[in-house]
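To illustrate the input format used throughout this study, we show a single complete record. The first block contains the structure-token representation of the backbone; no residue identities are included at this stage. The design step must infer an amino acid for every position from geometry alone.
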């Protein structure tokens, strides 16, 4: 019997504009009548839905399973040929990117709010990825947004029971093919083709008594991935993985892998003297690397991975085409690129900008200061990939120095002696008044336009002097397609090479989030003592000046940031 397709009348909702990572709002907003259906239909109206194959999955947060059933009904009604769905509706964002590419799907709908909290009173998100496995570019998200503003009805199949998402295999739903796949298997196979698992396993086995490992899934999507790699593939005990069961509310925590929200990992690493600790976020695209007494900033992490890439089979075989970072990220990777004679790109925040360069064959390794690191193996940042990359690097470093135990701290020290150190920190001010945030940005823009800041001298409480050499709004012209992205952050540079960036973020679900980035470079010649200073000490004067220039506390009505990374 032919499926019963109904056109449901609806009206547009304001504000369904996808950001750099899709549409993110509070759960209660998505639960409004027709709200989710409107957005899903707008996605399908923006692509060629009839005959398409789409990948569906999410990070396991509250509302994922119900939304998968909604997508099933709308997709079948719109003539989609096939849906490939992760078991129980779960797929990490990197795994989904891999599945889209491996199965040559036309795109994918991912249900995630990434590192934002989950649960009925927190956040939900929907984003569309295109056929290369990466986030939809602006021309697609703009089209989706335009559809949301004019939508008058959506199509839905009626009379069908919810599909069983927990059983693997081929199924049918209202005449549409559905394949339920294991969420982890394809991803692990991909990693085994990239990294030297034999070398990693040999290192972890022979040095087991002195080199301990701990992975924290933060009750997000990557717990099963971490367990499959570390326990089932590398043969480590089950105790090396914690918080590894995905929960709809992430166990009441904030699934953001940084020093604030992954504190249980940090505390355990320090208490038990664990040499290698790592965490990933809600949907698996971010990571934090932390060993006893050694925190690796995301900016340093991507630079070190690039520096050691020739020890990783994937890059040893295919070479490194180029390097890149988001604009707020420190210039540590630029120094690696310069020494190795590689092209290096500075792009706006948003992984889709890296995707264009990868598809053109000009980029291999890239990263963002927001704990995102990845390569051209997929078109998303990849938290678990970065964790295994570090294990591969550490295994290789210990093979090359068999008479000493090389840990995270030793890798960092060696890097700083060769390249110098980019002291870097980010201050996040979350859910601040939008009016105050916009006013602060407007004042900075006025100073940039008038050039009134250039030449200004600022003195910190400790007597350090900073003279502004340049102030500008970061604009980017894509070297591949010529598209232009304007107003991507306010930048102030100083004569000593230091830099401050302010940026309004689009990843929050309410209010505004202001991020302030501070960076100061110290060359190798300054010596070990200067290179080994605490980040807060090395940046204190610059932070004071950044707050003075922006009058941030005055506009945001906040004395302290929500998070410091």
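Output of the design step:
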């Amino acid at each position: 019997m032919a499926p019963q397709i109904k056109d449901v009348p609806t009206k547009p909702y304001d504000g369904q504009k996808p950001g750099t990572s899709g549409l993110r709002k509070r759960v209660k907003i998505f639960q409004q009548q027709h709200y989710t259906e409107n957005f899903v239909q707008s996605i399908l109206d923006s692509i060629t839905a009839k005959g398409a194959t789409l990948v569906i999955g999410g990070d396991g947060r509250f509302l994922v399973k119900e939304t998968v059933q909604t997508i099933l009904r709308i997709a079948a009604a719109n003539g989609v040929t096939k849906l490939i769905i992760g078991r129980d509706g779960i797929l990490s964002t990197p795994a989904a990117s891999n599945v889209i590419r491996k199965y040559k799907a036309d795109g994918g709908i991912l249900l995630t709010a990434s590192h934002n909290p989950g649960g009925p009173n927190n956040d939900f998100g929907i984003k569309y990825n295109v056929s290369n496995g990466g986030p939809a570019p602006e021309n697609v998200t703009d089209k989706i947004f335009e559809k949301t503003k004019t939508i008058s009805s959506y199509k839905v199949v009626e009379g069908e029971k919810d599909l069983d998402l927990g059983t693997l295999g081929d199924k049918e739903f209202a005449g549409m093919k559905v394949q339920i796949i294991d969420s982890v298997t394809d991803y692990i196979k991909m990693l085994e083709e990239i990294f030297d698992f034999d070398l990693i396993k040999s290192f972890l086995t022979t040095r087991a008594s002195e080199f301990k490992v701990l992975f924290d899934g933060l009750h997000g999507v990557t717990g099963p991935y971490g367990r499959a790699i570390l326990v089932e593939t590398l043969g480590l005990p089950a105790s090396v993985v914690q918080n590894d069961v995905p929960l709809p509310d992430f166990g009441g925590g904030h699934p953001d892998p940084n020093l604030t929200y992954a504190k249980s990992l940090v505390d355990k690493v320090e208490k038990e003297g664990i040499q290698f600790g790592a965490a990933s976020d809600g949907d698996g695209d971010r990571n934090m690397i932390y060993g006893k007494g050694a925190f690796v900033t995301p900016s340093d992490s991507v630079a070190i991975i690039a520096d050691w890439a020739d020890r990783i089979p994937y890059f040893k075989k295919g070479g490194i085409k180029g390097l890149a970072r988001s604009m707020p990220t420190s210039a540590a990777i630029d120094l690696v690129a310069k020494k190795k004679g590689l092209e290096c790109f500075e792009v706006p925040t948003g992984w889709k900008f890296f995707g264009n360069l990868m598809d053109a064959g000009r980029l291999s390794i890239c990263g963002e200061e927001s704990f995102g690191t990845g390569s051209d193996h997929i078109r998303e940042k990849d938290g678990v990939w970065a964790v295994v990359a570090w294990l591969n690097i550490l295994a290789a470093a210990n093979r090359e120095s068999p008479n000493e135990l090389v840990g995270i701290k030793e890798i960092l020290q060696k890097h700083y002696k060769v390249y110098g150190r980019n002291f870097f920190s980010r201050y996040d001010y979350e859910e601040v008044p939008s009016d105050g945030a916009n006013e602060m940005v407007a004042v900075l823009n006025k100073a940039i336009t008038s050039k009134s800041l250039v030449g200004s001298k600022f003195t910190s409480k400790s007597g350090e002097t900073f003279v502004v050499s340049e102030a500008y709004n970061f604009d980017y012209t894509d070297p591949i397609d010529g598209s232009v992205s304007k107003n991507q952050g306010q930048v102030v540079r100083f004569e000593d090479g230091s830099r401050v960036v302010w940026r309004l973020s689009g990843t929050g679900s309410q209010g505004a989030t202001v991020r302030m980035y501070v960076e100061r470079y110290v060359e190798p010649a300054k010596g070990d003592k200067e290179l080994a200073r605490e980040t807060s000490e090395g940046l204190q004067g610059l932070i004071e000046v950044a707050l003075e220039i922006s009058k941030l506390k005055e506009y945001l009505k906040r004395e302290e940031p929500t998070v410091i990374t």
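Structural context for interpreting the output: The longest strand covers residues 421-432. The two ends are 57 Å apart (CA to CA).
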